[in-house]
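Give me the fold.
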Amino acid sequence: MNGRPHPELTTYPESEGWLKTATYVFSAVVLILVFVMREVSLPIDWDVSFLPAVNAALNALTAVALLFSLYFVKQGKFVRHRNANAVALGLSVIFLLCYVAYHFTTPEVLFGDANADGVLSDAERVAVSGTRPWYLVILISHITLAGILLPFILLTTVRAIAGKWMLHRRMARYVWPLWFYVAITGPVVYLMLRTYYP
């Protein structure tokens, strides 16, 4: 986008203040949930074993929406660009809900844990010694970037809602590729881990 206003897009500059506050509060709550869910297990009898596949699909669909977003902005179709971003953001929120629900109710699955006992034996470590480092690099970069990016994704959106096109464009130049990377690596992590789900 350039610095000129886009008359086809409705903006709400008066909402910027409370949207920024909501961004910080929401990001903090998500960060707290991510830390807590590693330590707390909720005794719920629901079968949530389908959620990792759902999460991978939601990430893949987010990546597709982001590609449409990029295509539309390059074509100067700003309404479609906004709509594609809204879809990507909505899918990411649904992913977040499913991710938290799964990890609050299910023990973590370890890459290489062939007998699904929650412990990597020496034999299991040796069996995946060639691929486990790659898995860990992808997983750690995926999780780290996802955690760091959330407030920046939301702030980039807030700047668009407020009609601050130059600031939106400046942030999006960095946020979009990182968000796309997170969306793509989600399914990659799932595919690498899939054989180890019980």
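Helices lie at 16-37, 51-74, 78-105, 122-127, 132-161, 165-193.
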